[in-house]
Records
---
Amino acid sequence: MSTALEILRAHERYRKKTLNMIPSENIQSPRVLKALASDLAGRYSLRPQYYSGAMYIDELWSYAEELAKKLFRAEYVFLEPLSGHIAALLTYMTFAKHGKIACLHPDFGGYPGNAPDRLPDLIGADAIYFPASKDKLLPDVEKSVEIIRSEKPDLVVLGGSLILFPHPVKELAEAVHEYGGVLAYDAAHVLGLIAGGVFQDPLREGADILFASTHKTFPGPQGGLILTNEEECYRKLSKNIFHKIADNIHFNKIAALAVSFEEMSRYGKQYARRIVENSKALAKNLDELGVPVKAKEWGYTESHQVILDFQDQEEKERLRRKLEECGIISDLDLRLGTAELTRRGMGKREMARIAKFIKRAIEGEDSKTVKRDVQRLLSRFNKIKYC
Ligand SMILES: Cc1ncc(COP(=O)(O)O)c(C=O)c1O
């Protein structure tokens, strides 16, 4: 029987030899990993102060907050949520408990937590879903404005899990604010793109709150955060942190976040620009090879995601498995992400090669031959860039 560390090493060897294209994932820099594996992995601190021995922990916590505020140009930040899901829960329960929440349904790219029996059920809220396009994965602006004006939801949430294009924050903000509603943007997937100044800038476009994961396009430790420029929102959220959604906020994660804020302040722009260039190149190459790609009419993508356009669930599962046999890691929605490939230093030329690997896998070529070529490509991209 293997020990825990042997299994862990087997995992690391395996994923070093695969093209990691799950858009919810990323690889962390050596400095971020060092912070995660530090003494802080077992320490506590609280506000107001309760524990001794926490002076450096508190210094790191405040330092991380200041870096986040600067990077995202926000007055207030919460680094306490342990994940993007908890950041969503904190936002939903603060602004829509026993009320109404309007958002994108998971069938149209919205976060699975938006389904009526998930987060809305947990906070006793009624969920209203925006009419949306399955091709573009965006809400219909005119109809959504109508719904907002007639239903007056307490909380409106934009952003999603399958996200190719900027969401209509500017277009919906006025209607939400007319009656005093709150507009939140779920940047779980696109936080790294926002930090790098590409995609969209929700807090400048009219969102009151931005919540996110810190480990998808943003290459930090697994965790969540919330940003706002509204003092009233900050005050309300503050009341729901300690001993409601959190106790120990995992200070190794806070230290690792501080490191990734430093790295993204320095390299974020180049990194984010390259991610989007790479997804556009990957999508175009796939399309030219005859692989169906979603949203072709609109230029495929402006984010880190490229979505293969297959409808049948069994076929999607078969393709996901075939891709893995060929050394290409994706998910059941056949979303392909370019963040980790970009972190490894790949560019347009590699995207063209990867498109060919995917085509060969889909066409049913022998998995071993494709995998050999995948691994040959990977062996030239072992170093993590932008850090
Ligand atoms: C849009 C969206 N929001 C929230 C989450 C939850 O984030 P986490 O996995 O960090 O809990 C996800 C996860 O993929 C997501 O896609």
---
Amino acid sequence: MGPNGGGKSTLVRLLNGLLVPDSGEVAVAGHDPVTEPFEVRKRTGVLFQNPENGLVAPFVEDDVAFGLENLGVPREEMRRRVAEAIRSVGLSGYERREPHTLSGGEKQRVALAGLLAVEPEVLLLDEPTSMLDAPGRREVLRRIGGLRRSKTVLHVTHHLEELLEADRVLVINGGRLVAEVEPGRLMADAALLEENRLVPPTVPRLAADLGLGSCRTPEDLAGAVLRRVWEGSGAEIR
Ligand SMILES: Nc1ncnc2c1ncn2[C@@H]1O[C@H](COP(=O)(O)OP(=O)(O)OP(=O)(O)O)[C@@H](O)[C@H]1O
Ligand SMILES: [Mg+2]
């Protein structure tokens, strides 16, 4: 996370070997993306902030199959995984569409389907939901949440609520790592949030303002409010 121009996409490009660092070192699973690009790229999948940059093939289905082709996956399995990935991003029926005729959100879904078909060890997702409608965003986040159990996911976003389940949040500002915290701690640190132009989502903010502790979902908040009311009535009876 971090403000516009903070350096998030630059980090993604460094990890992918598209940029060479002026100083310091980059290692992905122990490999340098510049000197060992094959080692890094066979383990990682990148979703660029601008989906135009990621789509290369004449038809949607070829684009989604691109990563699998590079890995030499057998034809039948490839067909199955491509169809499943296209379905999982809600683009069934788009197989023979030309990527350049798609809307921004549709392109973002195609790029994501390409990653989901491969399921690489490391996923670099640069604002993967920025162009999606609300249901699309929820579905993609659910899918990313599932992948997090077995993969490493670096998820760049401007929406704090997308990171509530993250193991840790890296805050990048002015090209520097300014904080590395658990989501709950970030949410509770008003100064850190403000310095980095971050606004906590409504539910956790309301819960904090009401002194109800940490709540993530509206259901958590409703439960905490009910408990408060119950405790209050108990005190009156005594
Ligand atoms: N090729 C480049 N040459 C020079 N400066 C660059 C280049 N690419 C990015 N920058 C600068 O580096 C800084 C970080 O850019 P970056 O794209 O990493 O930001 P970001 O955190 O991804 O922002 P956003 O939230 O807007 O996507 C910006 O000030 C940008 O202008
Ligand atoms: Mg960016």
---
Amino acid sequence: MVVVGAGLAGVACARELAAAGVPVSVRERAHVPGGRMASRRFDGRPADTGAAYFTVSDPGFALLVEEWRAAGLAREWTDTFVSYGRDGRREVPGPMRWAAPRGLRSLVEHLARDVPVTVDRLVLGVEPGPRVDGDPCAAIVLAMPGPQAALLLDPALVAATAVVEAQRWSPTLAGVLRFPDRAWADFRGAFVNDHPLLSTVCDDGDRRGDGAPVLVAHTTPEFASRHLLQPTAAAPAIEEAVRDLLALPEPAEHVHVHRWTYAKPTVAGRGTYHLDADGIGLAGDAFGTPRVQTAWRSGRDLGRALVGRLA
Ligand SMILES: Cc1cc2nc3c(=O)[nH]c(=O)nc-3n(C[C@H](O)[C@H](O)[C@H](O)COP(=O)(O)OP(=O)(O)OC[C@H]3O[C@@H](n4cnc5c(N)ncnc54)[C@H](O)[C@@H]3O)c2cc1C
């Protein structure tokens, strides 16, 4: 069994298979697992450049989160964000948001500890058989955004192709802004409404718990789509918008921009995963609301379905 993609969905699926004694390997094109639960190090300190936090409502996911918490990897962050909009700034209570002191990627790495993940392994093609890059296998799981899966799927695999082609995705740019000092009024994270450029800004030092003067801003899909070819050129505009929003007196020392061409699905797929008679499985956050918990549940459910099919 081959799982392509070591984001949370792929790793959750592989873990389910491995726990049932099914031989499985995971192939990941990046240097590290994690996918959109992405943390990048700046001068040795990780900042979350993908998902900003996660929330928990599924009892099965809650058990996993408890494991992460017990291992010192996850912590409750805040249930209160601020909201900026036409009516000014106000506090908005919401669900408890969880963060990871070592970055959200550390959670996927922890989950992947018992499954064989090969990194730096770009998969190029999935053909009927099923075969992955020419190798036959019992089944193949594509755990990634639909447009990335579409690049791999032979059109003869009609059922899976139809599912990925029905998905719609929106882009985001993530700007990591490192300042000399924490010069902003106390806040944890902000939803920015009706803004031409910003959608959220989070205090990365607060969510990490080390108080570092680092903010991470996510842009609107509209702004991102105009800068996909040259995301770094958007850095000055992102910095200006954040300084303006939070009335910051000093410029950032360093701004890094990360491009997410497929940040979030905009249409929820049916069910929690796809598995067809061709032996192709699809998992990820497109099967529900675009959330960390959705990705985990999708991978877990597909793993269980594959175990059931093999039995
Ligand atoms: C900017 C941003 C902000 C977000 N904010 C939040 C939030 O606050 N809260 C929340 O709950 N969720 C948030 N999300 C969503 C959350 O990150 C995702 O739901 C979740 O991480 C998706 O996991 P996944 O495993 O489905 O996909 P991914 O994490 O995308 O994993 C797919 C993996 O497949 C790999 N891959 C792709 N193609 C190939 C190939 N050909 N060969 C080998 N490997 C391949 C990729 O490298 C990647 O590692 C956010 C996402 C983004 C981008």
---
Amino acid sequence: MRIEKCEDKCNECMLCVRDCVTGVWRNVGGKAQPVDVDLCNRCSHCIAVCPCNAIIHDGLKKEEISGVNRKNLSPDVYRDIIISRRSIRQFKKEPVPREIIERILDVARYAPTASNDQNVGYIAVTDKDLIEKVARNIFGRLSRLYDITKKGIGKLFVNHTGLFKNRYLRVMNYVQEQNAQNGRDFILHDAPVLILIHAPRGKPFASDNCNIAATTIINYAHALGLGTCFIGLMTIVLKFSEKLRKELGVPKGRRVYAVLVMGYPAYRYANTVSRKKADVQWL
Ligand SMILES: Cc1cc2nc3c(=O)[nH]c(=O)nc-3n(C[C@H](O)[C@H](O)[C@H](O)COP(=O)(O)O)c2cc1C
């Protein structure tokens, strides 16, 4: 990797040295110099911080880097995006154009990853038949588990352990009824898009990287007029079902750490919501 400085452009402001956390850029006799380029994790900070465009870095796509438009950074707009986003579980039949999904996944590239690993991958499913098949598969598993708790030793177990009070168990009767009566999909909410977010299995911060990307997606999608919902249930099922992982093309050595559904909301929320106060200890 080649990292160099254009001496004629550099004003020796040392921002690259102050900002570089990997130890590539250092102060050598009062001048900013790239000392050990192999340490670079390609975070782009040196280029992003340099006010003189004095840095040449052949490990980065320079054409992707542009000036920051501070006028667009509105805290009020951002706050409204965060607090007005809801988990959407009722979607219009309308499919989401591929360009829109691409645009959303493109923004998620800018979410932070530990050590700038950029190791998050996506599986975007728009095949409605496949989405429905997956939903039926997960619902079937859940239903079978629930049925076990209704009789014999299963019933004894949930009564003895107090599991019978569990919210999810208590609602299962209704979920089964609704599914039988009108085919309501309580698993993937009849969504037109399913997104699996994966990273190297067991790699430190793999789950964090995926879930930060997922959070970026849900907020940007909301700003674009789309609705999303995390499907933690499917993340769990994928952990245990190799068959489902294969069917959905999850690459070997990688694990799905977040699942989202996405589509155009069937209706809008007129109001924001109530939440617990932030639990903060001030020291
Ligand atoms: C990690 C995670 C897993 C979730 N799993 C599911 C799920 O399997 N099915 C579902 O309908 N909603 C799921 N949700 C959505 C939550 O129920 C929802 O975020 C919460 O009730 C708050 O509502 P809001 O997102 O509209 O603010 C999940 C949310 C998170 C953060």
